[in-house]
What we know:
The chain has a four-stranded mixed sheet, sandwiched between helices. The chain has helices at 2-8, 15-23, 31-65, 69-73, 75-110, 130-137, 140-171, 179-219, 224-235, 238-259, 296-307, 316-325, 337-351; strands spanning 265-268, 273-278, 288-294, 312-314. Helix content is 65%, strand content 5%. Strand 1 and strand 2 (273-278) form a beta hairpin. By secondary structure, the protein is mainly α.
Amino acid sequence: MAEESDQERELPASEQKIRKAREEGNIPRSRELGGGAVLLASVGLLYATGTELLAQSEQLLREGLRLDRTQAFDTKAMGLKWLAMMENSLWILLPLFLVVFVVAILANLMVGGLNWSTKPLEPKFSKLNPVSGLKNIFSSNGLAELFKAVLKALLLGGVGYLLISADLPHMVQFSAMPLEKAMAETARIAIKDSLILAIVFLLIVAIDVPYQLWKYYKGLRMNLEEMKREAKESEGDPHLKAKIKQMQRQAARKRMMASVPDADVVVTNPTHYSVALKYDKQGNGAPKLVAKGLGPLALKIREVAAQAQVPVLEAPPLARALYTHVELEEEIPGVLYAAVAKLLAYVYALGEGKAHLLELPDKNDVPKGMDPAESGV
């Protein structure tokens, strides 16, 4: 079943899954890259500072082999001399240690980048399970790592053996050489052999880095069910989102209908549109659209307005224009000022019993292009 599940995971990992993996400390790493970079940096430093390092080592060796009478017969003096030599050796090798330390850190960051996570430090009792440990050893990943380790040992060991075998006849002659020449030859051979081994190691790195990246992203691949579940978690359940939107529409509709009784007028197209307007005479703004509806909602607005004794007037072109171009709680646009002013004047005249002296807005009062009926809508 596990193999079948792995085969089903054909979708690439999402950004969310990769981010979650990094938060848990799961990032791609190449140990071979670190080893190769350290070896190459060490050889480079030896090549650049080899002459100075050789001179310091030669001087240290000369001082170590030179003993006066006090040091030869006094164990305490001998111990102090030995400590001084060790201290001088550390100072000589300190640049090499620092370079190795810095390069080792930077090389590890080249694959996977910098990532801070405390999850790997948390105790997990599953790691202490011997059965799980054996499964990991004999898993495809464990066998691949074993094969890689054996191949690396055979390759580097074989190249090292060939190098030493080729240099051995020359190295035997070192004992008959002067100290300076013997040390110079030793350094030359060491740097040459190390450089060749570093190049061989880089070939291993060139194979290991793409393999580690491929293995990492392969392990994070997803199947269709995981992708759907993640989409629901990140974007929300579509059914739940639809329910929330429905509830929001219902709440907005209730608020809108609650504004109808306070409106000054409801202007309608008898069969489709209803728009409620309110004008604050004490304010400086234009009339606002406080409710609008189409079809059944338009009928409901008219019913509420009738119950609240809000005038309901028919002005189809204006009703259509207001519904199309004005949103809830927005002031009417300037191009409709004249038509709305004519409508409100009719409303006020209606309250005073003088409506017969005025007319409702018609299509001539609505600017061209504002009435959607002009385009057949």
